Amino acid sequence: MELIVRAVDVGSGNTKFVTAAAGTDIRCASFPSVAYPSSDASSSWPASERKKTVCIPIGPLYYEVGPDVSLAADTFRAKQLHDEYTETPEYMALLRGALSMMKVGHIDLLVVGLPVALFAVKKTALEKIMTGRHDIGGGKAVTVAKAMAVAQPQGALVHYAAEHQKMASISHEQSLIIDPGSRTFDWLVARGMRLVQKQSYSFNRGMSDVLRLLAAEITKDIGSPYRDYDAIDFALRTGKQPVIFQKPYDIKRLLPLAETVAEQAVSTMKEWIEAPHSLQNIILVGGGAFLFRKAVKAAFPKHRIHEVKEPMFANVRGFQLAGQNYARSMMVVGQGYAQGESQ
């Protein structure tokens, strides 16, 4: 019997998760990493207007999460931008919200991710709290038999290798995976699939810094507080001007300022890379890839920079593949042990 493997990547910007998987055909979904607290399980709107959210019980409170959470939350949306994020009720609510939307009652192996800088110190504790019974509200629960935490960019490396049919050859190559997310700028140097710890790290210099910087500039320009980070993010990704005071606002003139954040992050990363000439693969993923692309290319002008389709889902797809490979190997070991005993 095939084991049920699922993957979740709870990021500061978005929570990504696998809804179905058949080999390398992996379907994903996401929702904003915002958990709106309330004292009871009732939705913040009448049943006739039900939106795409679920209420997850955590301790004495309920947290509403899901694709439409922005319609439920008030204007203050706290982001858990700190290293203890995985220990907060908000993190657990987002994780369990993803489990709820997977529509499975039992998971044999759940794969989750951690920023590179936190991987060694948080891995064991995170795997422990992920294992067991998860109350997802409405009298329902999901049980997780085993959990496995991996460094977030490591998932992207697995996904890239599978997408480009390099699983065999990449085991002899040295790779750099760059993952600019909402909160953190992560990078990982790997020999084959093994992390080179002393050259891999992460720090807080992601898209949230870009959005705050541009919001401050817009505030100075219009003479009124402006904090619509979603509108800025949408404008950067699509090239469409945000509407402020009923007028299109020319955000293109702020692009050089936004790019300084990417340049600072990439410059700091380069100090950790001991032998850039030995890198055979440089892979750029993550929700901020579109903005960091120029800085990465400038930093490695003699390399080809590889990207993947839907870079926001690169990590979680790789988590799923790594989990499937691990589960398959455990089944083979178990079968071999059983056969040995029967002889």
Distance between the termini: 22 Å
Residue-averaged pLDDT: 89
Q: Please give the CATH class of the largest domain.
A: Alpha Beta
Q: Which CATH architecture of the largest domain?
A: 2-Layer Sandwich
In short:
With 343 residues, this protein is of the alpha+beta class.
Q: Main traits of this protein?
A:
alpha+beta, single chain, globular, Nucleotidyltransferase, domain 5, 9 helices, disordered C terminus, 17 strands, 6-stranded mixed β-sheet, 343 residues
Task: Give an overview of the whole structure.
This protein folds into three domains: 5-151 and 314-340, 2-Layer Sandwich (Nucleotidyltransferase, domain 5); 155-206 and 268-311, 2-Layer Sandwich (Nucleotidyltransferase, domain 5); 207-255, no CATH class. 37% of the residues lie in helices and 27% in strands. The protein has helices spanning 69-72, 89-102, 116-130, 152-163, 207-222, 229-238, 255-270, 289-299, 314-342, and strands at residues 5-10, 14-22, 25-32, 36-38, 54-58, 61-65, 106-114, 132-137, 140-151, 174-180, 185-191, 194-195, 201-203, 243-244, 247-248, 281-284, 305-307. The strands form four sheets. A six-stranded mixed β-sheet has the order 3-2-1-7-9-8. The protein is globular, with a radius of gyration of 21 Å. The protein starts with a strand and ends with a helix.
